[in-house]
Amino acid sequence: MVIANVQREIVMVNAAAESLFQYSEQEVWGQKIKMLYASPDEFEEQGRQRYNATASETSLYTITYARKNGETFEGETQGGPIHDEHGKLIYFVGLIRDVSARLSAERTLNRLHSITSNQSLSFNERVDAILELGADHFGLPIAIFSKIDGATYTVIRAVHPENALSPGMTFELGNTYCSHVFEANDVQGFHHVAESRINSHPCYQTFGLEAYLGSPIFVDGGRFGTLNFSSPEETRPFTGQDIELIRLFADWIGNEIQRQRHLDSLTSTRLEMERLAATDPLTGLGNRRMMETSMKKEVARAKRHGTDFSIAIIDFDHFKRINDQFGHQTGDDALKAFAAIAQREARDEDLFARWGGEEFIAGLPCTTSAEAVKIMDRLASQLRDVIISDDEGAPTLTISVGVAQLREGESIGSLLSRQMTQCTWLRVPDGIT
User: Fold this and answer.
1) What's the Cα-to-Cα distance from 144 to each of 38, 135, 181, 216, 318, rounded to whole Å?
2) Cβ within 8 Å of residue 9, ≥6 positions away
3) What is the pLDDT of residues 35-52, one digit of tens each?
């Protein structure tokens, strides 16, 4: 509380005001209250608004004050005139509360919301912005987002006034103040390490960091790493608001990592389901559904660029006999043997799929029918060398192939239909056309 006379000269301050402004009552008694204002203009403005002969009631407002050492703070003030029993103005009174921390926290929360809700920023960009925000708010210029595996402390993102830290740098966890965070499993703060219980810590002995504030980061219920801020200079004692703010920062980072992990898992699951839906489970080649979709795209591309496109339908010879004489497992092995050869010998652009039963299909971009014959001949030659059973009389695997080349203006449906009805099918050992 500060009381001034009608000339706005200080006549009384209580002990709380002495502590807040760092002046003794003797130092301020009789002085213009202007000495407590951070801005002379604000002193004049308050005189026009509240502290004058016509003032009639108190009001609540916030302005910036200055302490004896020149440090400024934001003071929430309830102030106005005091009248005697006759209504005569005799004093002005101000009840002042330092709300700098609260207002700073509110501004920091607003900035945090702006950062975390900005979808145009990447995760790393938002983390960097949070590190800079925390460094500014806590007055600790070194900021680190770390990952901890066992005894290894790895810097993921960092802000340092001399750029002395970079992603990927590693330290022994025991040589960092973050070891205390992991030991406590909660926020830890030391505003003056030299006067604290950790003044013999290796981090203080090596780096001389006088102030530290750190929080664990949890992901899916497990400890991931830490978010921490430090300085070579001691700082003010940390408040409850500081503790809650760094915990909030760390929670956002942990939740974002968790969210991204879940999204990655969903994406991976979706891609795997799409792969399975397009894959023949026995041979690992594409299935008919995949091939129909892919060939439509390849035919459209061939028309657009004026390139060749051929298809080949491959059918195992005497496949029923293989199953009947040597068992269905041997038949499956024959199909898988062809698929393995096709995958090994195919060009990057070639498409192979199981068309049904013992029948396969190949889509060959930028390939004429004559070139397709050569490709099929090579595959068939390798297939003949495959031994599918140790039983005496095991058959040599042979195939019959039909090849057709896309004609101008032809659709994939027409190409498939023509391939099935007009091509001459010959067994590969005898040559194909």
Assistant:
1) 35, 10, 14, 12, 69
2) 30, 31, 32, 33
3) 999 999 999 999 999 999
